[in-house]
Design a protein that fits this description.
Elements: E1 3-11, E2 14-19, E3 23-28, E4 42-48, E5 51-56, H1 58-61, E6 74-82, E7 85-93, E8 95-103, E9 122-128, E10 131-136, H2 138-141, H3 143-149
Parallel strand pairs: 2-10, 5-7
Antiparallel strand pairs: 1-2, 1-8, 3-6, 4-5, 6-7, 9-10
Length: 150
């Protein structure tokens, strides 16, 4: 039975999780550089230890509206793998909730697709107490961008 360590977070009042394997770190959003002519889901870029990391408005990327940036906004720095390539990308979130270990066998299939939702970016839904978390798949979220890099 596979166990997946998961970072739980909130974004635009919705609950999400992402495999910790993809998470390099979580930082406070301090200074966001604007990137001219970037796709609209790119919020900007940050400088982290001498590297420029693109920052994605995850809410826009997955069609959940737009992230309202305030002093509590955090950035999850993700390492996304695609074949032999690896990209580092930041995603805006509202807050980190917890880190838990989930049982892969307890992941519920994302039933929302029957109602017209695009669930291609999800590995499934996971229930923690009374709340359901949408478990994102980092590679699927950035598949189109990764394909462009090749």
């Amino acid at each position: 039975m596979k166990q997946i360590p998961c970072l739980l977070f909130s974004l635009n009042k919705e609950l999400f999780g992402i495999d910790v394997e993809n998470v390099l770190r979580v930082i406070n959003l301090e200074k966001l550089m604007k990137v001219p002519k970037a796709p609209d889901f790119i919020a900007g870029a940050i400088s982290l230890e001498g590297n420029v990391i693109p920052v994605v408005d995850l809410a826009k990327k997955i069609a959940l509206g737009e992230t309202v940036i305030d002093k509590r906004t955090k950035v999850i720095i993700l390492e996304v793998h695609h074949h032999e390539d690896v990209i580092d990308v930041g995603v805006l979130i509202d807050e980190v909730i917890d880190v838990i270990t989930i049982q892969e066998s307890k992941l519920l299939p994302p039933v929302l697709e029957r109602m017209g939702f695009d669930t291609q970016t999800l590995d499934g839904m996971y229930k923690v107490e009374e709340d359901f978390y949408m478990i994102l798949n980092a590679t699927k979220v950035f598949e189109k961008e990764l394909a462009v890099l090749i």
